[in-house]
Batch of 2 targets.
Target 1
Amino acid sequence: MRIKDLGTRPAPATIREKFSRMLRGHGPAIPVQRRQIPYWQERGWTRQGRMYRGTYQTPYAAFTGQIEEHLGGHIDFWLYMPSNEIRNSSHWACFQHRGNDWYLVHMSKLPRDTGSGILTIERLITEAYEQ
Amino acid sequence: MKKLSVVVAGTGQIRDVEIQAGTTAGDILHQLNLTDYLLSKGPNDPFFAAAESIYDKVNDGEKIFASTKAEVGVLEQCA
């Protein structure tokens, strides 16, 4: 059987790296610290005093929001310009218009922290789009 | 056995747990002393019921959330 020599070429980088690693062995594992931050911060909200600003994020849409923490623990959740999907959802009656397209989201059971409230509203928005 | 990282929404604190088949959401919350909390995989997934076995619904090493109970609603209109 005749063999035609086509010349040589460098091995792909992935194979070179594999052989190189076999020769030098694995380096020590570097522990990566986990970020332990509140949910509102993880979702990119910012805080100024008792006021939080950010977006309620879902796979379907994101909405500008504001959250105001009052003395005594009461928390107000605001949502700007709700979409038709939210307006047509079963929870629309819970959105109270307060002017300039800002809506106060009424909670019959208040969350104990802002992160839990954001989760709740994001879930509500998702449900509105999946109805 | 599966390992889970439970993120407490309010503080961001991460609690690592190891669960066996049949472990319920309530078992985890009780173990972590998170009464009045609910577990979910995130904002796009429903809450696990307290009596619901979650072993088959989570992946090993997955991060899940514990958040306090909240309901959007006005009177009976949308509770």
Target 2
Amino acid sequence: MTYRHRIDLLLTGFFLLIALLAIIGVQDLPSDDQLFPITAGTLLLVATCIYAFRVLTRRHVDESSETPTILDLPSHEKVTILKMIIYISSLVLGVMLFGHLVTVPLFVFIYMLAHGENWVIAFLGGCVMLIFVRGILIELMNVAMPHPLFGNYLPF
Amino acid sequence: MSISTRSKNILKKSLVALSVIAPFAIAGPALAEPDFAGKDITFWTSHKGADSVLSLQTFSNYISKYLKGNPKITVVSKFGGGGLVNANYFAKINKPDGLNVTMFNFVVTMAWAMGKDGVNYELDQYRMVGAEPQVFMHMAGTSAKVGDSMLDIAKAGPHTYGTRTRNANVMAAEMLFKGAGNPLKVVTGFGKTEDVIQALASGEVQLSYVYGPAWVRNEANYRGMGLKPLAQMGVIGKNGEVARYASLANIPTVAELYLKTNPNGKKTMEYLAMKTATGLSNIGKGYFIGKDTPDDIVDAWRAAMQKAAADPDFIKEHTKLLGTPLELVPGPEAESILKDGLEVLKDTYFQKGNDGYKMVFGGK
Amino acid sequence: MLETAIILSAAIDGLFQVLAWPAFPFMFMGVLVGMLLGLIPGLGGLVGFALLIPFVVGLDPVVGLALLLGMAAVTTQTDTIPAVLIGVPGTSAAMATALDGYPMAKKGEAGRALCASYFASIFGTIVAAALFIILLPFLRGLIFSFGQPEFFMLVMFGLLLAGSLAGNSLLRGIIMAAVGLLLAMVSSTTSIGEPRYAGDIIYLWEGIPVVPLVLGLFAIPEVIDLARRGSTIAEVAADTKVTGMRQGLTDNIKNWWLVVKASLLGALAGFIPGLGGQVAEWMAYGAAVASDPDPSSFGKGNVRGVIAPEAGTAAQKPGALVPTLAFGIPGNVSMVILLAVFPIMGLVPGPSMLNEQLSVTFSMIWTMVIANILAAILALMLQKWLIRLCFIRASIIVPLILGAMLIGATMENRSFGDVLVFFLAGLFGYLFKHFDWPRVPLIMGMIMGALAERYLFLSINLHGTKWLTDRPLVWVIAAVIFLSIGMPAIMRKRQGQRTKNGSEA
């Protein structure tokens, strides 16, 4: 079984679970509020079962079935993908802990430096983001950025 | 009494008086008007509509004029969950320094009082610095052809009421129809007020409600679409009973109509519910300050709001921008209305699972 | 005859009002602001209104509206630029454009894609304006003849169009559409006000927000792949001269019927309150796919996949003005804000906007047309520099895009929930992209699902089953659905059968 088929089955299983949870999750609601979710859930249930069957019995063939996936890429590219996911996760975590104003400019600065840009460009990039968040969003447009976890300990 | 005894008594009283006055004299600076110079104040609201935010920001600019130090006041929208997102957020960030003030709508106040899920704020811990009334009005669409009175319509037979979600206005309409002996079919689920208005105009639903001042502003347009005003939720008058809102003087209140079908109805739970709904919508945009805020800050805010609302320049500017002046219910009065309303809502009739709760928030 | 003369006279008056001083420079300012907002993912028209409303207080209505509408009209002109150049839609109305625009940029055809989109926007606005003039005498009757059943049928039209966007595998497309429908079911708008699938998470009571979901699903995968390639956006060396202008115009002329069709769909979506810009975009895109002899070419750099959604989105805006001005019923979210601004300008939506104030109404329509033309000219002039963006190193562009996207995603609800939705959608989006699970049906299901449920229930609660039998407009829309989707699919199948039989013979 190829990687593609395995991922297909994994996703299909995941969606099957969602379908079941969706149908169960509305049992306490009146019938009016159940109709659409149960219809969509049933459609999902049936489609995932048929698809899983076809993948398992190799009956599902389309243009993309046999083409290589990202799992077939050279290892350095796979590492890059993983690194990007870690970068994005750090950005998200940083924003939730320290807020957009601190995290986003810092992220831009660190990312550029880590990828070989000289510190002037990295610094400029960070400044652009800082001006955007502080100058335009917070000062000019009075956007209420969400309060991060350590927001009370920050001086701004 | 001998002069010496009288003198001793006078001295005693003076000493007593001094002992009472002295701490205030010594503590004088602590009770001086709070100074907000150089401070940034945030005025939170759950509304995201441009006119609502514009109204509040304009008001805030004038409030700042009357707060010592003229701080910068910025209105920030924190919308979602029918107002609960803003309320729960305020619960997390509020401090007793007068630098954060929030608007709670009457859904938020009722949700707290009636034990709705999702409430994570302590309404009874906050002080009210003022409020604006939200007077709603029921209207008929093109397919409600029976009479001009909501009572005639209620007596004529079952009708359909369209709305976004259930709330106290819908509850009042249902009670009126119940009193008239006919059911009111409430159809919820419309996306926006404008969707309901279109449904009214196209005849798909027969009844709905609209914000009173919005009717006043758009009356020609609404009448052109075939809509008719029927009954208003009213305001609480000086006698403590439901009275007509000044801008809708020709339109009867739902409470008035209810009493026509039930002359002894003032003692019923239904009438009390209508009155409470009216009272709470009279402080429908309630302005609250943080928990444990000292009295001097609360008083400073209340005074500034009242002066701002009465400022002729503000009245002119607000009327130019929004079409109507801002009506302010002063803080102490608002707090009193709130207290009365919350007291009524403690009744089990309004708690989760019971009739009153179901009429306001829906449910099985 | 007299009515025609009145309409034409008002149209000419309106045009002169817009071209006069100081309306024209204010409109130009609005255009500049709108262009900037469209460029930055996650911002867009609503942010622009928030910025500009304080400036319109005290201005003459035509001037103030020229500023506001000049801004609002062009955000969906320049949102194509990041959509084509870096695969990140500037607003959610450019999502469909990114599907084909970005592959075109990778092939070195960025200029052609951008020019095709500018001209499509211009033509879309013009078609919508012309439709407005034609329909003016019938407007009131038209808008009030649409009820919940008709809205439901229109949304079903959009949903069924999503079926034609399933890419290689119909089954995967159905699965994703069903997932989208279920995501749309998350909210508190049930008949009893209790949240469905949201529990105590208040953030979810308003439903899963679309903007962070779309940005995550579509934009994060592109950014990761850009970083993976480590080079620049353009995978093919491109001519940095301003190329493609003539070709972009030719593409529009060659596909004139598609432009008209997409514009009509867009105008209709704008005209019917409650549908909105995203529906216009996808209906137009879906119509292009459904009517193409080679649907599999979409998503790989088919210029029709750029022309159709751009024309549809552009036409949606003048369309949305119609119910807003005529009845005070906003045609889309931007119109809700515009309605709130009307009292400041001393305007009252209603019959007067179609009678005494008809020239003001026309000035608004003209503003949208002229603003689109201005924006296209400006964008063409700056094209050379814009295309250079394709050649900026990934190490510079990736963090800037990620940062801007994250901020843009947070603007929806201004909550960390948005950030989480963005992140999770990004992870799944990457998986879906590389394992050929089509994301478009998911988004279509989500956007249309909530609308479909609402309209279906309202139809049943208000009309019982009679909505299927007693309403002629429902049948008309059903016929349109069959003709636009069913017929092409049947004909393609027959064509395929004939080809198969021919080759066997």
